[in-house]
Amino acid sequence: MKFFIDSANIDEIREAASLGILDGVTTNPSLVAKEGKNFRQLLDEILELVNGPISAEVVSTDRDGILVEARELAAIHPNIVVKVPLIREGLKAVRQLTDEGIKTNVTLCFSPTQALLAAKAGATYISPFIGRLDDISIDGMELIQQIVTIYQNYNFGTQVLAASIRHPLHVVQAAMMGADVATIPFKIIDMMFMHPLTESGLQKFLDDWKKNEAKLV
Q1: What percent of the chain has pLDDT over 90?
Q2: Active site residue 83
């Protein structure tokens, strides 16, 4: 499974990259707006930190507008993946962008039928939103399983990117189901390191070493 960080915060991205486990970055208009920076400047900073797919989202909602923005974003760097909303006009644009060799991440997916349409349109990634489904009492992980099964049945090349992850268990479940990517907020990446037995075990090792006055060399 590939790990992307779901963030536009440079400090978070830098720290995640330093861990040696980061494969890419996903951003969206809300995350970018929180940073209060010029979008192009922010993308340039992210591209300097991470050598992998960087999702940048269009804000137009008509096919022609999406195509204009998508081509501008894709021209910035080969690692840019254009995020497109899962709407009719969006998928019209995705088909054209795919034909032009531009990678796309179709976002705001909440059903297997939507995911099937995105794959048929040639999307590089599909982003099912797990947490937002959980918020309305629908099992988000069931959607991941449905999409993975459908894509495997027909050998679609679209990668399943589990998004809107709210806790480490989402990552575990997505990995067990065969999702290709998990895009994870920084606080969840941080939580994935934590286990009370690791902490207590390390403390015991260090305490015993100190009591014995041992030396490494």
Answers
A1: 95
A2: yes
